[in-house]
């Protein structure tokens, strides 16, 4: 046990204080008392002066004897060494924090790369590009592009002209659930999409600084012209910064046989 460690422990014993209580009396951080007593850090000049004043006020004989051996006013080199040790400790903590953050970012990047690889390998029947925009407290959408409308028409039983009207490409719609495509989407699917839409503005605010894309799968049930349901899966790649969504959609295997 070095002299500093003994000093703080004797003071706490004579005043019957916890580390937190002593830290409060000295107006320093609670963690500092722990480090002083466990020889993880040495007190600087200002802290020793506070200790000396406290011991004088409380007439603590033993701590004052220990302090008399420190010669606080004249041992400048020792005080400089104490302060240097404190700065080194702070720097060490900062380095550890940065290393931990780098590891988290590296893991996140690896996950993004895995998702991106999976996205590129996805099988799909058509691709839809959408731009989302804020409208009041909610979101609106513009469908920018859709591929293979002829194939969709065959699967769902509509004409190409009808599918063109449903997609309404290039037209801004201020309410997601009012877009014409909702006419051929199952009610339960529409509710789930609307539920997600209510949380997306908050997600955009908190995640817009994220580097890279985000991937969200979403089951979609379409309504065939004859009334039966046609299941599909939509794999959505979201770019948080510009509020754009690219969706790869795949009808299930039995879609054409119904």
Fold blueprint:
Blueprint: H1 3-15, H2 19-26, H3 30-37, H4 45-58, H5 61-68, H6 76-121, E1 126-135, E2 138-146, H7 149-156, H8 160-167, E3 172-173, H9 187-207, E4 214-223, E5 229-239, E6 244-251
Q: Can you write the helix and strand succession as a string?
A: HHHHHHEEHHEHEEE
Tally the structural domains.
Answer: 2
CATH superfamily of the largest domain: PAS domain
Which spans of ≥5 residues are poorly predicted at pLDDT below 50?
A: 73-81
Number of DSSP-assigned strands: 6
CATH class category name of the largest domain: Alpha Beta
Shape: rod-shaped
Output the CATH topology of the largest domain: Beta-Lactamase
Q: What do the pLDDT scores average to?
A: 78
CATH architectural group of the largest domain: 2-Layer Sandwich
Helix count equals 9
Give me the Rg, rounded: 33 Å
Query: How would a textbook summarize the main sheet?
Result: 6 strands, antiparallel
The rounded distance between the terminal residues' Cα atoms is 82 Å
By secondary-structure content and strand pairing, the structural class works out as: alpha+beta
How do the strands of the widest beta sheet line up side by side? Answer: 3-2-1-6-5-4
Strand percentage lies at 15-25%
Portion in helices: 40-55%
């Amino acid at each position: 046990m070095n002299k500093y460690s003994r000093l703080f422990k004797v003071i706490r014993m004579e005043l019957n204080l916890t580390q937190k209580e002593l830290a409060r009396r000295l107006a320093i951080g609670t963690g500092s008392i722990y480090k002083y007593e466990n020889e993880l850090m040495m007190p600087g000049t200002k802290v020793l002066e506070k200790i000396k004043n406290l011991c004088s006020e409380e007439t603590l004989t033993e701590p004052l004897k220990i302090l008399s051996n420190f010669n606080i006013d004249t041992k400048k080199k020792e005080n400089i060494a104490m302060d240097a040790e404190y700065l080194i400790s702070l720097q060490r903590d900062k380095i550890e924090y940065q290393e931990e953050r780098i590891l988290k970012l590296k893991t996140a990047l690896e996950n993004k790369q895995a998702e991106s690889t999976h996205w590129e390998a996805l099988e799909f029947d058509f691709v839809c590009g959408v731009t989302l925009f804020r409208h009041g407290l909610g979101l609106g959408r513009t469908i920018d592009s859709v591929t293979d409308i002829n194939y969709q028409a065959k699967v769902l039983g509509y004409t190409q002209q009808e599918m063109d009207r449903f997609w309404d490409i290039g037209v801004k719609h201020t309410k997601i659930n009012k877009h014409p495509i909702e006419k051929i989407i199952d009610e339960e699917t529409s509710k789930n999409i609307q539920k997600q839409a209510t949380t997306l503005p908050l997600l955009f605010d908190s995640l817009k600084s994220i580097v890279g894309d985000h991937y969200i799968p979403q089951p979609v049930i379409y309504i065939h012209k004859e009334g039966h349901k046609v299941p599909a899966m939509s794999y959505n790649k979201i770019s948080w910064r510009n509020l754009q969504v690219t969706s790869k959609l795949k009808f299930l295997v039995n879609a054409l046989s119904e």
